[in-house]
Amino acid sequence: MPQASSSTQLQPAAPTPEHGLLALATAPSTISKLASTENPEARLLLAEVSVGLTPLLAAQAPKVFQLNRQLGAGTVVKMLVIILRAFVDSLKVPTKPDAADIIEMADTLAQTYTHDSLKDLILALKDMRTAGTKFYQSVDVATIYAGINTYFDKKAKALENQHYDQKALGASGQAVAVAALDLSPDTQQILKNVASTLPDTHPLKDTLRRRLRISKARLHRGTITEEQHEQTLAENRKLTIRKDRADWKPSPEGQKQMDKRHRAEDRRLEEKYRRPAA
């Protein structure tokens, strides 16, 4: 049979920086040596891993508990030691964590962030440098822990906001799909009323209900168009899908000012749309 040419033969996949880190962790070397020896190759591999790395990509990477099952807990701790050692070597300060501190940090991080990825921790350490953290003349373990905690707080808020945005887009898509159905005008009006229902536990229910009431009054008197009223309804639907949060509730002073503005707006609308006596 004819032999395949060299140009058509399948070439093995090029090793990735992640494979390089795994090779360093599985090489015949003790964890103490990894923690105490400077390794320029590891720093270069980590720099390649962090290129284009975002919190979303890091969240999609294998988690620490998954790597523990696939590679073993000891290998994962070694990889964390390599990551932390490369980070410590990149800092230009005279006083840094020693080998014992690095091993202890690696073990603590492996037990604390079991449902996060190693790329999350790489990104957290990178964020400490790119965010302009000032280390002055020394870096201790507490400073590194604080920087990692700050990263995960920012990541949690970013993922929460992304979740709310996806829910808002889903609600808008459902409203468009319902509008596209060939329903009777009465059925469409019932669906609109259901979609505009505000739960009693919503922290902004009074404000949103007042806004709907004013919009309906303006539509009835012809001061706004049907499209403007529908836009108000769509905005209210987006706000109703957000779950109850304590930081939504205004302070007592802010609530008083809000109520005062609402009463003034109600009086203005009442005077504007008051019908003359017959």
Q: Could you explain how this protein is built, in words?
A:
There is one protein chain. The protein has 278 residues and is mainly α. The chain is 69% helix and 0% strand. It contains 13 helices and no strands. The chain is elongated, with a radius of gyration of 29 Å. 17% of the residues are buried. Residues 4-12 have low confidence and may be disordered.
The ordered H/E elements are HHHHHHHHHHHHH
Which radius of gyration do the C-alpha atoms yield? 29 Å
Helical percentage: 55-70%
Instruction: Name the poorly predicted regions.
Output: 4-12
- Sum up the overall morphology in one term: elongated
Strand content: under 5%
What is the strand tally? 0
Average pLDDT, rounded to a whole number, is 76
Largest sheet: none
Given the structure, what is the number of helices? Answer: 13
What structural category characterises the helix and strand content?
mainly alpha
Distance between the termini: 105 Å
